Structure prediction request, 111 residues.
Amino acid sequence: MKNHDSSKQQWRLTEFLDRPRIVHARVIPLQDKKTEFAQVTVRLHSRQTLAGVSGPARTRESIEFIVVESTITSKTPWRICGRLSPKWAATPALPASTATPAAGPSAAAKS
Prediction:
Protein backbone atom coordinates (compact mmCIF):
# COMPACT_ATOMS: atom_id res chain seq x y z
CA MET A 1 0.00 0.00 0.00
CA LYS A 2 1.36 3.40 -1.00
CA ASN A 3 1.89 6.05 1.67
CA HIS A 4 0.29 9.31 0.48
CA ASP A 5 1.37 11.41 3.47
CA SER A 6 4.61 12.46 1.76
CA SER A 7 2.66 14.21 -1.03
CA LYS A 8 0.49 16.42 1.20
CA GLN A 9 0.80 20.15 0.81
CA GLN A 10 -0.68 23.02 2.76
CA TRP A 11 -1.69 26.26 1.03
CA ARG A 12 -2.33 29.50 2.88
CA LEU A 13 -3.37 32.96 1.75
CA THR A 14 -0.92 35.14 3.67
CA GLU A 15 -2.31 38.56 2.73
CA PHE A 16 -3.87 40.64 -0.02
CA LEU A 17 -1.33 43.12 -1.40
CA ASP A 18 -4.04 45.18 -3.15
CA ARG A 19 -7.80 45.31 -2.80
CA PRO A 20 -9.64 42.93 -5.17
CA ARG A 21 -10.61 44.88 -8.29
CA ILE A 22 -13.28 44.26 -10.92
CA VAL A 23 -11.59 44.46 -14.31
CA HIS A 24 -14.48 43.33 -16.52
CA ALA A 25 -18.23 42.86 -16.13
CA ARG A 26 -20.79 41.72 -18.68
CA VAL A 27 -24.54 41.04 -18.64
CA ILE A 28 -26.06 39.04 -21.49
CA PRO A 29 -29.76 38.34 -22.10
CA LEU A 30 -30.39 34.65 -22.74
CA GLN A 31 -32.59 33.26 -25.53
CA ASP A 32 -35.87 33.67 -23.65
CA LYS A 33 -35.12 37.42 -23.25
CA LYS A 34 -36.40 37.26 -19.65
CA THR A 35 -33.26 35.81 -18.11
CA GLU A 36 -29.99 37.69 -17.82
CA PHE A 37 -26.63 36.05 -17.30
CA ALA A 38 -23.74 37.98 -15.69
CA GLN A 39 -20.02 37.35 -15.70
CA VAL A 40 -17.47 39.34 -13.66
CA THR A 41 -13.67 39.11 -13.74
CA VAL A 42 -11.89 40.09 -10.51
CA ARG A 43 -8.14 40.79 -10.22
CA LEU A 44 -6.54 39.45 -7.02
CA HIS A 45 -2.99 40.43 -5.98
CA SER A 46 -1.90 38.38 -2.98
CA ARG A 47 0.95 36.72 -1.16
CA GLN A 48 0.54 32.95 -0.76
CA THR A 49 2.47 30.26 1.09
CA LEU A 50 2.76 26.62 0.01
CA ALA A 51 4.29 24.16 2.47
CA GLY A 52 5.07 20.54 1.73
CA VAL A 53 6.10 17.72 4.04
CA SER A 54 9.42 17.21 2.27
CA GLY A 55 10.73 20.77 2.09
CA PRO A 56 10.63 24.34 3.34
CA ALA A 57 7.60 26.57 2.88
CA ARG A 58 7.67 28.72 -0.25
CA THR A 59 6.03 32.13 -0.35
CA ARG A 60 5.21 33.97 -3.56
CA GLU A 61 3.28 36.94 -4.79
CA SER A 62 0.46 36.09 -7.16
CA ILE A 63 -1.72 38.04 -9.56
CA GLU A 64 -4.75 36.01 -10.56
CA PHE A 65 -7.99 36.77 -12.34
CA ILE A 66 -11.05 34.93 -11.03
CA VAL A 67 -14.16 34.74 -13.23
CA VAL A 68 -17.51 34.43 -11.45
CA GLU A 69 -20.94 34.07 -13.03
CA SER A 70 -24.62 34.01 -12.13
CA THR A 71 -28.07 34.06 -13.67
CA ILE A 72 -29.03 37.33 -12.04
CA THR A 73 -32.74 37.42 -12.83
CA SER A 74 -33.39 34.12 -11.04
CA LYS A 75 -31.22 35.01 -8.00
CA THR A 76 -28.91 32.00 -8.40
CA PRO A 77 -25.76 32.14 -6.28
CA TRP A 78 -22.52 33.33 -7.86
CA ARG A 79 -20.07 30.56 -8.74
CA ILE A 80 -16.43 30.52 -9.80
CA CYS A 81 -16.24 29.41 -13.42
CA GLY A 82 -12.60 30.12 -14.19
CA ARG A 83 -9.20 31.21 -13.00
CA LEU A 84 -6.59 32.91 -15.12
CA SER A 85 -2.92 33.24 -14.19
CA PRO A 86 -1.17 35.07 -17.00
CA LYS A 87 2.50 34.28 -17.58
CA TRP A 88 3.44 37.97 -17.36
CA ALA A 89 2.12 38.05 -13.78
CA ALA A 90 4.24 35.13 -12.55
CA THR A 91 6.71 35.95 -9.79
CA PRO A 92 9.38 33.62 -8.45
CA ALA A 93 8.90 31.86 -5.15
CA LEU A 94 10.53 33.56 -2.19
CA PRO A 95 12.25 31.63 0.60
CA ALA A 96 10.13 31.69 3.75
CA SER A 97 12.79 33.68 5.62
CA THR A 98 12.54 36.63 3.18
CA ALA A 99 8.76 36.63 2.81
CA THR A 100 7.95 39.93 4.47
CA PRO A 101 5.95 42.84 3.04
CA ALA A 102 9.16 44.89 2.67
CA ALA A 103 11.04 42.13 0.83
CA GLY A 104 9.84 41.07 -2.55
CA PRO A 105 11.22 40.07 -5.93
CA SER A 106 12.39 43.63 -6.67
CA ALA A 107 14.11 43.98 -3.27
CA ALA A 108 15.89 40.65 -3.76
CA ALA A 109 17.11 41.71 -7.22
CA LYS A 110 18.80 44.83 -5.78
CA SER A 111 21.01 42.75 -3.43
